[in-house]
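Contributing new records

If you add data, match the layout below exactly. Sequence lines come first and carry their own label; structure lines follow with theirs. Keep one chain per record. Anything else will be rejected by the validation script.
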Amino acid sequence: MSEHDANARFVGETIVEPAAIARARSHAMELGAAPLSAAVGAQCAVLSAAVAARSIIEVGTGAGVSGLWLMRGAPQAVLTTIDNEPEHLAAARQSFADAKIAPARARFITGRAADVLPRMNEGSYDIVLIDADPENVIEYVEHGLRLVRTGGLVLIPRVLAGGRVADPVQRDAVTAAYRSLVQETQESPAVLAALSPVGEGLLQLARISA
């Protein structure tokens, strides 16, 4: 086992996932809505705590795993979560109820993010998490950076695409989009960017200017 593999295994084994999130993970697997890894979820919780998030947007609800991790770090936050699958949203509602999240703290929107995000208020959110439609990830990130306040975060999990992004031989559209996103955000004067290799990868963008 390589050092990298050993580290990844150690990280995965040390994270204790709260019972409510573990139940949501089981529901997600039953639905075929692949949830974030616990390692990435824990990072999201720390980041939401670090910015004292009060208002969060999530693109890609799944069964509620990522939303519950975000709200674990921000117990006063209100989450707006968007998914075009009513079955996923129903599962997430149940996951939030099981976790005793007050109904007023979660807003569930059925629809395409490309249709919903343009209608949301600019500079009004602390965190935007994007975990859906990887072929449209660059468009969603542009919306996310418009919607977060200065100092707010746009978080993009799965950005390493199962190792494909790091492999120059891979040139499919999704891999190319993720690769372009990583490169362009590293060079942008509008954001601070950091790419975490933990789990499936997490690109973290902090908006520093309009």
